[in-house]
C-alpha cells in the first residue's frame, strides 16, 4: 500500500469528518495530504468547515496511529480502496455523496453489474424464499448481489447468490473487522470467500444505529437497481429505496398482502411509482429497456457491464434511446419542460393545472423512467 492511501485512511479516521466533509477537503486542497497539513485558517476557508471541525482536524491529525490501523487491517485481511483508486466502483462515483474510500475483506470485480436486494429483518418464510430465489437468478445472470448482511431478507439474499455460485457484496454498518449480527459468522466467512464485505467506517467501529442509514446510500449506489422484497412502511429498506430513486436508479418491489405489516412498505412503494415485479424476468426486461444492460439470453449468458443499445423500440427525437411510455399525468407534466428548463412540484402544478400531489407522483415516475433527472436543489430537469 503506497503512502497516499495512508492519508485517505488518516483523514477519514478523524472525528467530525464524514464522507461529504472529507470530499470537500480533498477537492479544495487537492489531496488528503494537503488537507491534513493545512492551518486552522486555511481549513475554515473550505465550504461548511467551521471552527469545531477545523479544531478536530488539527488536534487529531498527529494522534492517529496509522501503523496500528495497518496492523488491524493485516489481522482482518482487509485492504483499503480510495476514491482515486482505479478499482473504486464507477457506479459509486455517480452518486452525490460517495464514500472517500472503503475497507474491503474478500475480493470482487466492481465493474460487474450489481442489483441490491433489501428488506425486513423480521421477514416471513415467503420473504426468505423469495429473496433467495431472486438472488440466485440474478447471480446466474451475471449480476453481483448487494445487500447489508442484516438478519432476514439481507442474509437470505447473500445466501441465495452464494448457493448459485455467484458473487455478493455485503455493505456493513460497522467496521469490516466487526461481526454483526453475531449469528452471521458463517455467512461472513462465505462472503469473504465468494465476494466482498465492505465498509467506509474505520476498523473497530461498532454497529451503532446511526450507521445504517449512512451505509444504505452505498448499497443503492453500487447497484443498477434495488429490489425491496418485504418491508414495513418505516425502516432502513424504505430509506434505501428512496436513496436509489434519488440516485436515478431503478426501484422494484414485491407486492404483498394488504393485512401483513412486512408488505406495507412494498405496497406503498408500488403505489408511489416503484415497479411491481413477480419474477426476475420482470427486472431483466426493465433493465434492458432502460438501456442499463442488454441480455442476449436471460440466465444463460452474463449481461454486459457497460450500457449498450437495446432492441427496444427507439425514440425518434433521441436516436439510440428507447421510447418512453408515459401515463396521462406523466405526459402532462413532461410537456411542461418544453417551456421550462427545470421544474419543482409547485411550478409543475402551476403549468399543468394538476394538484401538487399528482405532480410529485408524476415527477417521481418520470425520474424512475429516466425521462428526467433530479437536480441538487430538489427540482427536476429533462435528462440529456
Q: What order do the helices and strands come in, and which of them pair?
A:
Blueprint: H1 3-12, H2 19-29, H3 32-36, H4 40-43, H5 51-60, H6 66-76, E1 78-82, H7 90-93, E2 101-106, E3 114-118, H8 125-140, E4 144-147, H9 153-163, E5 168-171, H10 185-194, E6 195-199, H11 211-221, E7 225-228, H12 236-246, E8 250-253, H13 261-271, E9 275-276, H14 280-289, E10 314-315, E11 318-322, H15 328-335, E12 342-343, H16 345-352, H17 356-368, E13 372-374, E14 380-382
Parallel strand pairs: 3-4, 3-7, 4-5, 5-6, 7-8, 8-9
Antiparallel strand pairs: 1-2, 2-6, 10-11, 12-14, 13-14
**Global shape:** globular
* Strand arrangement across the biggest beta sheet: 1-2-6-5-4-3-7-8-9
The appropriate CATH architecture of the largest domain is 3-Layer(aba) Sandwich
Cα separation of the termini: 40 Å
Report the CATH topology name of the largest domain.
Rossmann fold
Query: How many distinct folded domains?
Result: 3
Helix/strand structural class: alpha/beta
Instruction: Let me know the largest β-sheet.
Output: 9 strands, mixed
Low-pLDDT regions: 291-322
Strand content: 5-15%
Q: What integer is the average pLDDT? A: 87
Helix content: 40-55%
CATH class of the largest domain: Alpha Beta
Number of helices: 17
Number of strands: 14
Radius of gyration: 22 Å
Describe this structure in words.
With 384 residues, the protein is an alpha/beta fold. It has three domains: 1-64, Orthogonal Bundle (DNA polymerase, domain 1), CATH 1.10.150; 105-289, 3-Layer(aba) Sandwich (Rossmann fold), CATH 3.40.50.450; 324-382, Winged helix-like DNA-binding domain superfamily/Winged helix DNA-binding domain (Arc Repressor Mutant, subunit A). Helices cover 43% and strands 14% of the residues. The chain contains 17 helices and 14 strands. Strand 10 and strand 11 (318-322) form a beta hairpin. Helix 16 crosses helix 17 (356-368). The two termini are 40 Å apart.
Amino acid at each position: 500500500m503506497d503512502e497516499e492511501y495512508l492519508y485517505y485512511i488518516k483523514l477519514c479516521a478523524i472525528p467530525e469528518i464524514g464522507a461529504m466533509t472529507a470530499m470537500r477537503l480533498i477537492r479544495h486542497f487537492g489531496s488528503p495530504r494537503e488537507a491534513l497539513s493545512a492551518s486552522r485558517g486555511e481549513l475554515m476557508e473550505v465550504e461548511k468547515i467551521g471552527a469545531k471541525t477545523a479544531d478536530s482536524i488539527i488536534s487529531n491529525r498527529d494522534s492517529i496511529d496509522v501503523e496500528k490501523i495497518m496492523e488491524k487491517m493485516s489481522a482482518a485481511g482487509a485492504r483499503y480502496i480510495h476514491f482515486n483508486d482505479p478499482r473504486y466502483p464507477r457506479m459509486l462515483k455517480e452518486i452525490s455523496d460517495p464514500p472517500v474510500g472503503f475497507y474491503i475483506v474478500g475480493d470482487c470485480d466492481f465493474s460487474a453489474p450489481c442489483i441490491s436486494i433489501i428488506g425486513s429483518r423480521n421477514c416471513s418464510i415467503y420473504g426468505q424464499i423469495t429473496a433467495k430465489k431472486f438472488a440466485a437468478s440474478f447471480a446466474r445472470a451475471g449480476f453481483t448481489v448487494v445487500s447489508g448482511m442484516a438478519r432476514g431478507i439481507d442474509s437470505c439474499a447473500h445466501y441465495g447468490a452464494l448457493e448459485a455460485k455467484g458473487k455478493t457484496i455485503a455493505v456493513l454498518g460497522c467496521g469490516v473487522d466487526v461481526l454483526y449480527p453475531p449469528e452471521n459468522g458463517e455467512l461472513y466467512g462465505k462472503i469473504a470467500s465468494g465476494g466482498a464485505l465492505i465498509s467506509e467506517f474505520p476498523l473497530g467501529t461498532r454497529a451503532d444505529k446511526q450507521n445504517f442509514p449512512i451505509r444504505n446510500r452505498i448499497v443503492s449506489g453500487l447497484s443498477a437497481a434495488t429490489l425491496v422484497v418485504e418491508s414495513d412502511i418505516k425502516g432502513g429498506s424504505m430509506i434505501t429505496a428512496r436513496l436509489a430513486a434519488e440516485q436515478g436508479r431503478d426501484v422494484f418491489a414485491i407486492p404483498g398482502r394488504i393485512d401483513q405489516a412486512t408488505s406495507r412498505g412494498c405496497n406503498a412503494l408500488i403505489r408511489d411509482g416503484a415497479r411491481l415485479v413477480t419474477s426476475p424476468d420482470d427486472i431483466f426486461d426493465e433493465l434492458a429497456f432502460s438501456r442499463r444492460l442488454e441480455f442476449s439470453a436471460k440466465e444463460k449468458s452474463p449481461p454486459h457491464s457497460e450500457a449498450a443499445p437495446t432492441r427496444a423500440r427507439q425514440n425518434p427525437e433521441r436516436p439510440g434511446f428507447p421510447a418512453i411510455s408515459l401515463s396521462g399525468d406523466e405526459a402532462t407534466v413532461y410537456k411542461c419542460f418544453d417551456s421550462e428548463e427545470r421544474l419543482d412540484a409547485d411550478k409543475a402544478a402551476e403549468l399543468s393545472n394538476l394538484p401538487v400531489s399528482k405532480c410529485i407522483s408524476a415527477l417521481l415516475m418520470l425520474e424512475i423512467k429516466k425521462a428526467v433527472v433530479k437536480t441538487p436543489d430538489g427540482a427536476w430537469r429533462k435528462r440529456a
